[in-house]
Design goal:
It is built from nine helices and twelve strands. It is of the alpha+beta class and 322 residues long. Bound molecules: magnesium ion.
Length: 322
């Protein structure tokens, strides 16, 4: 199929559904109407085959993940997701493969009402997909990284460490795969982007967890010039992760440092937890507290401190600037 024919085949599935998409795919650029009083919120992420997903990932899962990670970034700002563009560079632009990629992208969009308003395809040696997601938010209600306050609790959505375990389980072969392994791999390939609107007017600071809890929480601590205590016994854990790694230290290490979970990590006043949890539509777990003194400490249920070396993360280099 020639590229032009292919795009024609795919774009009939991308007719605008939103009233504020004034002009979607088919012209030189899209025309989008921003509601009065709202700031445009924009994020972009490139996924490279072999780096951000295993080379044998299915087209559907590549489409799913590339969209989900970008919508997760909008959620982390408490933005209303509205539009996205998708640029694909691939060695071959096979019609079936591209159709499955679009199936995955649309599955990640789900019922959120986001329109795909532009795209591009190019031939390239290396399979690369870039998604730009756009949404909006009242300027004062965007949830940023630099506004955490001492006395906030730290809470995360869903469970932690699953995607890292899924990557470790990758390639073991479908024939003897356990249900737990399949669950972990699904978490890696099809991350659930969360309802960030639940944080609006409630959370002080937030980010999504793409590089691991410690790394991403570290960005909040650095931007807000505060510190944190993390309750190691409180890290939310799936049954699949418990089965994958029964050893508590090794499991907590995955939960602290494993990337790709795309859960939200937020800091908020204790009194706001219940209403945010109600609005989220997924579990919310308190895993720590923000303290005035910079640095990160890991504590057990009795308040005793863990040595960072227990998790093979000696030094906490990214906190050095504090
Ligand atoms: Mg992010």
């Amino acid at each position: 199929v020639r590229e032009f024919e292919l795009i024609k085949q795919l774009t009939h599935r991308l007719a605008p559904t939103r009233a504020d998409t004034l002009l979607g795919i088919g012209d030189d650029a899209a025309l989008l109407a921003l509601p009065a009083g709202q700031a445009l919120v924009v994020t972009t992420d490139t996924l490279v085959s072999g780096r951000h997903f295993p080379v044998d990932t299915s087209a559907f899962d590549i489409g799913y993940k590339s969209v989900a990670v970008n919508l997760s970034d909008l959620a982390a700002m408490a933005a209303t997701p509205a539009w996205l563009t998708l640029a694909l560079a691939a060695p071959t632009l096979d019609s079936t493969w591209c159709t499955q990629l679009l199936d995955g992208a649309l599955a990640a969009i789900g019922t959120s009402g986001v329109d795909i308003v532009g795209g591009d395809t190019t031939r390239s040696e290396c399979l690369t997909i870039t998604v730009t997601a756009m949404g909006y938010c009242p300027i004062e209600q965007a949830v940023r990284r630099d506004s955490a306050r001492a006395g906030d609790v730290i809470a995360v959505t869903g469970t932690l460490g699953d995607a890292a375990a899924g990557l470790a389980e990758w390639g073991h072969g479908a024939s003897d795969m356990t249900a737990h392994a399949a669950y972990l791999i699904d978490r890696l390939c099809r991350p659930s982007w969360r309802n960030g609107l639940a944080m609006r007017g409630q959370a002080h600071a937030a980010c999504d967890i793409s590089d691991g809890l410690c790394a991403d929480l570290g960005h909040i601590l650095a931007a807000s010039t505060v510190g944190a205590r993390l309750y190691m016994d409180a890290l939310p854990t799936s049954n699949a992760l418990l089965a994958y790694q029964p050893d508590a230290d090794a499991r907590q290490r995955l939960q602290l440092t494993g990337g790709d979970d795309y859960e939200l990590c937020m800091t908020l006043p204790p009194a706001a937890v219940a209403s945010v949890a109600d609005a989220l539509g997924c579990p919310l777990t308190i895993i720590g507290e923000i303290v005035a003194e910079p640095g990160l400490s890991l504590v057990d249920a009795q308040g005793a401190e863990y040595a960072a070396q227990t998790y093979g993360i000696g030094g906490w280099d990214h906190f050095a600037e504090l």
